C-alpha cells in the first residue's frame, strides 16, 4: 500500500537545531503539582494528554494523520503517531541527542524556535510536557522511526538508561512513547477509559481528518502481549488484538462537533454555519467557528485555544459574541425585522438556543492563570471578530431561509426577555436585594454570617417540621418543599418565578437570578438538599440539581451545594441504638441471616413490630429491633438531628461538575422533551442505578 505524505514524513528542516533548552528537570518530582496541577486522577490523566498533545501538534502541522493511544497491563500507556519522528542527532547546546534533550530537560522542545523548523502553534505545556511525564514515570521507552532508521532509548524516573541507539532499519516515520506512571507520586494509578475516550473524541473534532484510536488492552495476557510484533508494526489496532477500542475520524471537524452536541435537539435551521481562515505570516493564526441554533433556551458555547478547552472562555469568545450581536442586528435592520431605531438585540438575546464552537490557533498564546481555563491573548479578539463578522454576514445573505429562522428565534427571545423583566424586577430587584420579607415557610437561622450558615431544602412539611425542631437554630435554616418543583430545563425565568416554590427558594438564597444574579449576596454557604430515599425523592433531587445547574451554576462551582445522606435503618440492640446507611452496614451490625420481617403495626408482647421493622432474637442475645426509614418524615426531631443535621455525625455529598459538557448532555437527556432518548438512556444505564423499591 502506498504511504501518504504524512506517513512518509516531512523533514522540513526539523532537526537538532530546532530544539531549545531552557532549564533542568529535577524540580518536577519535588513539586509535581506545579506542572500537572494535582497528583490525583486529573494529574494522572494529564500525563496522557501531554504525550498525546505532542503527537497532535505534529498533525496540526500537517506532518501526521494517525494517532493511537493504548492502555497496557501494569499501568503502561503507549502513544503512537506517524509524524516526522523526534530528531535523534546530537544537540549542540546539550551535547547529547535531541531525543534525550527533549525527554530529560525541562523547557526543551520544538515549540520555542522562531524559525520555520519548529511548531507554529502548539497546545502542550510550552515544551515541558514530555520531560514532565518522563520525570514522573518509573519507566519510559522512546522509539523513533526516522530517516530509514529505528532508534530507541529507555529512562527510569527521568534519567536515561543508555544513550540513544539505532536498533534497526525502518520504512516508517513517527514516534512511539510508552510510559509507566510512578506510584510513589500519584495517590492511585487507575486510568478511566471512558474519560480518555471522551477527551480524545473532542480532540478528533478539533483536527480535521485526524484518525485517533483508543484501545483498552489492560486485560490482555502477557503471552498475547509477547506475541505482538510491536517492533515491526506501529499500531496495535492493526494486529487484530481483541480489546475494547474506539476510533474517531471527522472530515468536517467542528461541524461534526456541533452536530454531535445537537443530536438530541431540534434544529431551527438546516445548514450548520462554518468558517475557517488561516492568516498568513507574520500573523500565522487560524480561526475556526461552527454554529447552529436549536429550539431551546440554553446556549451551549465551547471554546478552544490551540486545541485546549477553555471552560472560562476568554478573548476569542468576547470577539465572537460582539460580532454575533452586531451582525444579527445589522441584518435584522437591513431586512426590516427591527423597525425602531433604538430597538436592538442584546447579547443574551442572540445567545439563546445557540450551539457554537470557537477555536483559535496561534503562536505565543497567553492564558490567564496556570489552568489555561481562560484565553488572555488580546489579538485573538480582533482576529475572531473580523473573521466571523465577514463570513457570518455572507452566510445570512446566501441562506435566507436559515437567516429568517435565526432572526425569528432571536425575536422570540426578545419578547420573552421583556415579559420576564417585570417578573424579575418585582420579585428580585425589589425583593431579596432590597429587604423583601423572607418566605413564610422558611425557618431562618439566627446567624447573619453566610460562612457559618446552612440551608436545608427538605422534602415535605412532615420532614420540615422535624428538621425545624431538631436543628441548631443559630446556624441552620430549613425550607420545606411541597411536592415536586417545576422542571426548569426549558422554562424561562418569568415562568419559573410564577412558581411559588422556586420563588421562595430564590428569595431565601438572596442571590437573585438571571442577569441580576450576585453570588456575593448568598445568605448560606451550605445549601443541603435533603430528600427521601425513594424514587420520588430522587426525582425532586434531580429537579433541584437541574435548577442549580442551569441558573445557579456558580454556586456549584464554588462548592456550596450538598446532598444529605440520611440513614436507611435504625438498629436498636437493647438500650443501644445504631444507624446504618447501607444494607451492608446493617448486615455488619446484626448479621444477614439473623433477621426476619414481622408485619404487625405496633410493638407487642408477642414480639411483633411495625411493617418497616425487623426483629431478631436469640436465647442469650438481647432483642434487636431494626426500623427501616422510608422517608425523612418518619424520623423524629432527635433522630433527624443526630443522623442528618449534626455536623459531628452527618454524611454530606458535595456536588461538583467535572465535565460540564457531559453534565449538560445528561440534563438535556433526563429533563428535556426527547422521550425516546430519555428511555434509551434509562435502559442503557439501569444496571448502574441503586433503586429502593
From TrEMBL:
<dbReference type="GO" id="GO:0003677">
    <property type="term" value="F:DNA binding"/>
</dbReference>
<feature type="domain" description="Toprim">
    <location>
        <begin position="453"/>
        <end position="567"/>
    </location>
</feature>
<dbReference type="Pfam" id="PF00204">
    <property type="entry name" value="DNA_gyraseB"/>
</dbReference>
<dbReference type="Pfam" id="PF02518">
    <property type="entry name" value="HATPase_c"/>
</dbReference>
<dbReference type="InterPro" id="IPR018522">
    <property type="entry name" value="TopoIIA_CS"/>
</dbReference>
<keyword id="KW-0479">Metal-binding</keyword>
<keyword id="KW-0799">Topoisomerase</keyword>
<dbReference type="InterPro" id="IPR036890">
    <property type="entry name" value="HATPase_C_sf"/>
</dbReference>
<dbReference type="Pfam" id="PF00986">
    <property type="entry name" value="DNA_gyraseB_C"/>
</dbReference>
<feature type="compositionally biased region" description="Acidic residues">
    <location>
        <begin position="593"/>
        <end position="613"/>
    </location>
</feature>
<dbReference type="InterPro" id="IPR013760">
    <property type="entry name" value="Topo_IIA-like_dom_sf"/>
</dbReference>
<dbReference type="InterPro" id="IPR001241">
    <property type="entry name" value="Topo_IIA"/>
</dbReference>
<dbReference type="InterPro" id="IPR013506">
    <property type="entry name" value="Topo_IIA_bsu_dom2"/>
</dbReference>
<dbReference type="InterPro" id="IPR003594">
    <property type="entry name" value="HATPase_dom"/>
</dbReference>
<dbReference type="InterPro" id="IPR020568">
    <property type="entry name" value="Ribosomal_Su5_D2-typ_SF"/>
</dbReference>
<dbReference type="InterPro" id="IPR006171">
    <property type="entry name" value="TOPRIM_dom"/>
</dbReference>
<comment type="similarity">
    <text>Belongs to the type II topoisomerase GyrB family.</text>
</comment>
<keyword id="KW-0413">Isomerase</keyword>
<dbReference type="Pfam" id="PF01751">
    <property type="entry name" value="Toprim"/>
</dbReference>
<keyword id="KW-0238">DNA-binding</keyword>
<keyword id="KW-0547">Nucleotide-binding</keyword>
<dbReference type="GO" id="GO:0046872">
    <property type="term" value="F:metal ion binding"/>
</dbReference>
<dbReference type="GO" id="GO:0005524">
    <property type="term" value="F:ATP binding"/>
</dbReference>
<dbReference type="InterPro" id="IPR014721">
    <property type="entry name" value="Ribsml_uS5_D2-typ_fold_subgr"/>
</dbReference>
<dbReference type="InterPro" id="IPR000565">
    <property type="entry name" value="Topo_IIA_B"/>
</dbReference>
<dbReference type="GO" id="GO:0003918">
    <property type="term" value="F:DNA topoisomerase type II (double strand cut, ATP-hydrolyzing) activity"/>
</dbReference>
<dbReference type="InterPro" id="IPR002288">
    <property type="entry name" value="DNA_gyrase_B_C"/>
</dbReference>
<keyword id="KW-0067">ATP-binding</keyword>
<dbReference type="InterPro" id="IPR013759">
    <property type="entry name" value="Topo_IIA_B_C"/>
</dbReference>
<feature type="region of interest" description="Disordered">
    <location>
        <begin position="592"/>
        <end position="620"/>
    </location>
</feature>
<dbReference type="InterPro" id="IPR034160">
    <property type="entry name" value="TOPRIM_GyrB"/>
</dbReference>
<protein>
    <recommendedName>
        <fullName>DNA topoisomerase (ATP-hydrolyzing)</fullName>
        <ecNumber>5.6.2.2</ecNumber>
    </recommendedName>
</protein>
<keyword id="KW-0460">Magnesium</keyword>
<dbReference type="GO" id="GO:0006265">
    <property type="term" value="P:DNA topological change"/>
</dbReference>
Amino acid at each position: 500500500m502506498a504511504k501518504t505524505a504524512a506517513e512518509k514524513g516531512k523533514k522540513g528542516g526539523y532537526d537538532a537545531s530546532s530544539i531549545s533548552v531552557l532549564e533542568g528537570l529535577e524540580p518536577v518530582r519535588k513539586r509535581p503539582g506545579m506542572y500537572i496541577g494535582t497528583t490525583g486522577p486529573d494529574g494522572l490523566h494529564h500525563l496522557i494528554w501531554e504525550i498525546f498533545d505532542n503527537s497532535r501538534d505534529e498533525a496540526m502541522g500537517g506532518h501526521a494523520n494517525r494517532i493511537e493511544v493504548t492502555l497496557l497491563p501494569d499501568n503502561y500507556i503507549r502513544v503512537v503517531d506517524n509524524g516526522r519522528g523526534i530528531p535523534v542527532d546530537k544537540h549542540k547546546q546539550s551535547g547529547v541527542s535531541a531525543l534525550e534533550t527533549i525527554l530529560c530537560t525541562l523547557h526543551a522542545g520544538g515549540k520555542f524556535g522562531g524559525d520555520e523548523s519548529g511548531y507554529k502553534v502548539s497546545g502542550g505545556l510550552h515544551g515541558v510536557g514530555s520531560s514532565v511525564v518522563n520525570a514522573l514515570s518509573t519507566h519510559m521507552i522512546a522509539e523513533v522511526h526516522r530517516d530509514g532508521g529505528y532508534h530507541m532509548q529507555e529512562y527510569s524516573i527521568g534519567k536515561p538508561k543508555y544513550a540513544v541507539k539505532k536498533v534497526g532499519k525502518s520504512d516508517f516515520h513517527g514516534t512511539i512513547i510508552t510510559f509507566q506512571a510512578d506510584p510513589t507520586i500519584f495517590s492511585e494509578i487507575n486510568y478511566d477509559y471512558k474519560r480518555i475516550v471522551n477527551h480524545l473524541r473532542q480532540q478528533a473534532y478539533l483536527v480535521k481528518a485526524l484518525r485517533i484510536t483508543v484501545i483498552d488492552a489492560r486485560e490482555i495476557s502477557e503471552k498475547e502481549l509477547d506475541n505482538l510484533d510491536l517492533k515491526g508494526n506501529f499500531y496495535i489496532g492493526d494486529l487484530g488484538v481483541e480489546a475494547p477500542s474506539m476510533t474517531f475520524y471527522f472530515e468536517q471537524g467542528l461541524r461534526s462537533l456541533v452536530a454531535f452536541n445537537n443530536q438530541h435537539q431540534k434544529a431551527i435551521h438546516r445548514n450548520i454555519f462554518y468558517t475557517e481562515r488561516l492568516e498568513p505570516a507574520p500573523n500565522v493564526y487560524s480561526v475556526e467557528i461552527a454554529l447552529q441554533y436549536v429550539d431551546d433556551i440554553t446556549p451551549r458555547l465551547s471554546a478552544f485555544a490551540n486545541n485546549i478547552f477553555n471552560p472560562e472562555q476568554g478573548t476569542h469568545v468576547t470577539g465572537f459574541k460582539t460580532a454575533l450581536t452586531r451582525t444579527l442586528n445589522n441584518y435584522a435592520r437591513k431586512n426590516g425585522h427591527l423597525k425602531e431605531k433604538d430597538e436592538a438585540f442584546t447579547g443574551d438575546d442572540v445567545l439563546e438556543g445557540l450551539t457554537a464552537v470557537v477555536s483559535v490557533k496561534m503562536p505565543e498564546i497567553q492564558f490567564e492563570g496556570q489552568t489555561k481555563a481562560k484565553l488572555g491573548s488580546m489579538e485573538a479578539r480582533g482576529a475572531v471578530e473580523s473573521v466571523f463578522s465577514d463570513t457570518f454576514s455572507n452566510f445570512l445573505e446566501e441562506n435566507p431561509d436559515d437567516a429568517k429562522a435565526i432572526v425569528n428565534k432571536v425575536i422570540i427571545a426578545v419578547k420573552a426577555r421583556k415579559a420576564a423583566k417585570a417578573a424579575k424586577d418585582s420579585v428580585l430587584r425589589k425583593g431579596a436585594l432590597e429587604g423583601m420579607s423572607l418566605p413564610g415557610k422558611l425557618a431562618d437561622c439566627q446567624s447573619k454570617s453566610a460562612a457559618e450558615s446552612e440551608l436545608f431544602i427538605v422534602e415535605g412539611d412532615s420532614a420540615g417540621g422535624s428538621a425545624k425542631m431538631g436543628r441548631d437554630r443559630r446556624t441552620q435554616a430549613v425550607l420545606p418543599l411541597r411536592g415536586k418543583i417545576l422542571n426548569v430545563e426549558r422554562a424561562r425565568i418569568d415562568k419559573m418565578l410564577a412558581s411559588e416554590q422556586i420563588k421562595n427558594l430564590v428569595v431565601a438564597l438572596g442571590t437573585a437570578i438571571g442577569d441580576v444574579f450576585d453570588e456575593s449576596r448568598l445568605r448560606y454557604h451550605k445549601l443541603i438538599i435533603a430528600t427521601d430515599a425513594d424514587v420520588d425523592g430522587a426525582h425532586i433531587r434531580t429537579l433541584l440539581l437541574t435548577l442549580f445547574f442551569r441558573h445557579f451554576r456558580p454556586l456549584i462551582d464554588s462548592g456550596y451545594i450538598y446532598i444529605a445522606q440520611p440513614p436507611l435503618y435504625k438498629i436498636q440492640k437493647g438500650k443501644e441504638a445504631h444507624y446504618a446507611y447501607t444494607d451492608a452496614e446493617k448486615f455488619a451490625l446484626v448479621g444477614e441471616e439473623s433477621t426476619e420481617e414481622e408485619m404487625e403495626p405496633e410493638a407487642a408482647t408477642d414480639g411483633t413490630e411495625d411493617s418497616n421493622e425487623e426483629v431478631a432474637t436469640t436465647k442469650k442475645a438481647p432483642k434487636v429491633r431494626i426500623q427501616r426509614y422510608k422517608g425523612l418524615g418518619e424520623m423524629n426531631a432527635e433522630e433527624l438531628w443526630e443522623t442528618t443535621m449534626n455536623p459531628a455525625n452527618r454524611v454530606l455529598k458535595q456536588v461538583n461538575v467535572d465535565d460540564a459538557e457531559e453534565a449538560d448532555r445528561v440534563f438535556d437527556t433526563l429533563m428535556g422533551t426527547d422521550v425516546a432518548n430519555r428511555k434509551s438512556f434509562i435502559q442503557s444505564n439501569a444496571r448502574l442505578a441503586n433503586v429502593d423499591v
